[in-house]
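Backbones bend. To wit:
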Amino acid sequence: MGRTAAEVVLVGVSHVAAASQQAVRETILREQPGVVAVELDPGRLQALQRGGRPPTIREAGMGGALLFRLLHALQQRLGKQLGVFPGEEMLTAVQVGREQGIPVALIDRDARYLLQGLRSLPLKEKLSLGALTLTGLAGVGRMDLRAPPGEEVVDLALAELKKRLPALYRLLITDRDRHMAAQLRALAHGRKVVAVVGAGHAKGIRALLEQPPGS
């Protein structure tokens, strides 16, 4: 967790550690912000509220249903190493915010943007992506799922992803960091924001928020 120059309290969470949910709840209750921001878009919030049940083709269309399944597969592997996809701690943030009468903002890119980006990946990365959903990132080591990963572990995993799949890294990390940082800047005018994001995004978003506006 850390504060930024833009009056944003960043809570970087691991999407597999139970301790993250408690940290989210305690931070919101302690800070009593003007808004709670979460690393979600409307479609993925609805999916989490369904308990992870995949949307039907009728509900989301063919592309949306396929996207959910691909993102779910990525979450099972990359989410454990990078902290780049939302889980129960995001629902906790939404729930606590609403219980406290605090507005909740969904700051992540629309999932359809990710679908378009996945379609545009170089063929080599598309082929590697399938293997990645099965094996995860090599060389990161075993993780204790009872506690959030340390910054060193997250940095190692991000560096490995950037080296192996640079276009996917830009899509999943760089572009989303910039988008969410811009959303947080807009939200933070005159009020405190508690922002709950994956551990893989916290460092990049913090660096962007500490830059002078317009830089």
About this structure: Residues 18 and 146 are 6 Å apart (CA to CA). Strands lie at 2-3, 8-13, 35-38, 104-106, 193-198. The radius of gyration is 17 Å. The mean pLDDT is 79.
